[in-house]
Amino acid sequence: MKLVPDFSGARVEPSPNHGERVGGVAPDMIILHYTGMADHGQALSWLKNIESEVSSHYFVWPDGRVVQLVPEARRAWHAGKSFWDGETDINSRSIGIEIANAGHPGGLPPFPDAQIEAVIALCRDCAERWSIRPERVLAHSDVAPRRKVDPGEMFPWDRLFAAGIGHWVEPGPIRSGRFFQRGESGQPVEALQGMLALYGYNVPLSGTFCDQTEGVVEAFQRHFRPARVDGIADMSTIDTLHRLLTELPRFQGTN
Length: 255
Prior knowledge:
This protein is of the alpha/beta class and 255 residues long. It has helices spanning 40-47, 90-93, 113-130, 140-143, 157-162, 187-199, 211-224, 235-246; strands spanning 10-12, 18-19, 29-34, 58-60, 66-68, 75-76, 94-99, 137-139.
């Protein structure tokens, strides 16, 4: 039986690597990845190889061509061990999109305009059909800090937001002033951890700026304050996080 693409602009190239969404849940997140391989064809082949035990719902070529590998109703294997806003089975709750880009191993090459426009169109279509909220369009690095760094600090989240995809505020300017880093402890650190946890990140409320906290701060910076990704919670990072939180509907008295 020939599979019909969920996204009309996609060509189907099936992957065997998928299963049932646990609990029959509908996807309420979109997770963006880069392939991290110089050979884009090899990256696509790997996602279709039964021995790899990895897959995504979609693959986007640099020229904007979109391939669907797994039906959206099925659970693709793209997020791995991950967490967001209390959920640990991110694969069951998400649509995974692999963007063909060599990433950090390849020196963070830019994402071509045609590719970003295709990602925007694909995300918009998925979000509309599944009623996915903007703040739940996330990076792989958001749901798996330290373990994953894709799609990286060069990914143009601001362009997606301008097109109505994802959540974004203009990052606070980097300037001197108070900051928090690994080894520090106290109520201000716990308050920072609380803000990150409220946004959705997996961070302990310990009051100690531990390795896990540093990794989460790095992940936040990579997505929302990409000019400097160092794991140090400076005022630019904290201000950006605070403004993102104040714009979330659940903190504005609406659903």
